[in-house]
Amino acid sequence: MNYHELNFEGIAGPTHMFSGLAEGNLASKTHAGKSSNPKQAALQCLDKIKRLYRLSFKEAIIPPQNRFSEEILHYYQIKDLKDDIQKIYDRDPQLLRKIFSSSSMWTANAATFSPAQDCNNARSSITIANLLSNEHRKHEAKHNYKFFQKAFANSPSIKIHPALEIHPDEGAANHNRFALKHSSKGIEVFVYGYKEDSEKNNFILPARQSFQACKSIANSHSLENVFFVQQSKEAINSGVFHNDVISTANLDYFLLHEKAFENQNEFLNQLSDKFFEINKSPLKFSLVKETEISLEDAVKSYLFNSQIIGEADQMTLIAPSECKENPKVYSFILKLVKDPNCPIQDVEFLSLKESMQNGGGPACLRLRLVLNDDEINNLAPGVLLNEEIIEGLEQWINRYYPETLIIENFLDIEFLQQLKNIFANSPLV
Ligand code: SUG
Fold it and tell me: Which pTM value belongs to this model?
């Protein structure tokens, strides 16, 4: 049986805004209130998807969440769009921003996936993330649950676990899988920010991922080889609100900053030993020193939020263009690509400016799942991308998405109605 990595990509919705909603996320706070460009945001996401698709990677899209859904409007007690929206705006404009957030675009936060080969019960599992740490994001869980139920309706081999009820969980942004090949038995690493009982208030900027959520997911997925490691407090306090802002992995390669984790050396030794024991082949590392790239530069450039694609010694780094603009980060990348011991052979820079200004880089915009041929063939029709869907999507965005958006636009009833109607014309399933 062949195994493939399938990216479930995210795409900005027509209500993409800069609202300063995300706790611990410096980019979101810095750009709060700026006018956004939803059309450009979505086209930038689509450009990344098209590049990967044309390189023959398997691609799918989790559609942008319709924040005009009856469920959400009902939750916020909105009966009459026009009147109630004006009332909410007069009372608390920030609440309006939460209601219409387009944050479902960052699909790395949608769920955590474990393929059957990592699990004692020989069954793949996906747990939907509850995103409880931020009011504007907690609504995504239902949308993602429904989407995966539909996508995997014909794949009984994949168990879909609903979002955890209480322990805050932000999905794959705090989870890495190490394996020699996609088909090999993997080691899964869960990265937590804090223990709920003792550490919630130990930070200047808030930690988001709870240890209890990581434990609970690892148990319900029946994982065989699993590590739990704590994010470094210094990193969190420097704006590393998810682990994928400071470390990233692809198969047997780990790119990380020296200040990514608490007790980092001990963790890396144990992980390397385990990897060697399973694969009889070493885990490869690039460990970035603070003197080479400071935590501040890592957070500004989002180097560690690059996507690493490809296998064996043929990997490519898909980096945000901000990395090219930062001389230290750029020269580090050039050094990496030239290093014969590093599997990364090539780099491509992408502009994802609209997403980046909300703290979302290339890796935030995708959820990786390792699926076998049958599971891919059994995906619901329309889920796996093809040229036709891509073309339809591009036309939809170009035709309907607004080019500028601020929260006050929501008070114009005609514009509001137009925004609402965009979802009705979506070409995505
Ligand atoms: O949860 N930003 C998101 C960005 C998520 C990035 N994902 C990963 N690192 N995997 C967040 O902080 C900003 C929304 C606003 O302010 O309008 C926001 O939700």
Answer: 0.98
In angstroms, the CA 387 to CA 374 distance is 22
**Strand 284-288 to 253-257 pairing:** parallel
CA distances from 157 to 114, 115, 223, 393 (A): 12, 10, 16, 30
| pLDDT value for 391 | 98
- Dihedral-angle region of residue 312 (phi above 0 means left; psi in -120 to 50 means alpha; beta otherwise): left
Residues involved in catalysis: 170, 242, 364
* Alpha carbon distance 175, 216 (integer Å): 13
What pLDDT, on a 0 to 100 scale, did the predictor assign at position 311? 95
Q: What is the pLDDT of residue 118?
A: 98
Residues making up the chain, counted from first to last: 429
Q: Is 191 in the pocket of ligand 1 (CB under 6 A)?
A: no
Instruction: Write down the residue that tokens 């479930």 correspond to.
Output: 8
What does the pLDDT read at residue 37? 98
Low-confidence ranges of the chain (pLDDT < 70): 201
The two structure tokens encoding residue 409: 């636009």
Q: Is 323 in the pocket of ligand 1 (CB under 6 A)?
A: no
Backbone CA torsion sign across 218, 3, 254, 127 = negative
Write down the pLDDT at residue 202.
78
Q: Do 67 and 13 touch, CB atoms closer than 8 A? A: yes
244 lines ligand 1 (CB under 6 A): yes
Please name the residue whose Cα sits nearest to atom 8 of ligand 1: 364
**Which residue from 359, 330, 362, 357 is spatially nearest to 57, judged by alpha carbons?**
362
What are the domain boundaries of the chain? 3-424
**Structure token digits, residue 178:** 């190490």
CB-CB contact of 172 with 133 (8 Å): no
Q: How far is CA 35 from CA 23, 42, 403, in A?
A: 20, 15, 10
Distance CA 171, CA 111 (A): 4
CATH topology of domain 3-424: L-arginine/glycine Amidinotransferase; Chain A (3.75.10)
Task: Write the CB contacts of 343 (distance below 8 Å, at least 6 apart in sequence).
Answer: 252, 253, 284, 312, 313, 314, 315
Please give the structure tokens belonging to residue 384: 């796996």
Is the torsion defined by CA of 72, 76, 77, 82 positive or negative? negative
DSSP-derived letter for residue 20 is -
Q: 58 burial class (0-12, 13-18, 19+ CB within 10 angstroms)?
A: middle
| Smallest CA separation from ligand 1 atom 10, residue | 364
Distance 155 CA to ligand 1 centre (A): 31
Kindly state the helix (H) or strand (E) to which residue 249 belongs, with its residue range. Answer: strand 247-250
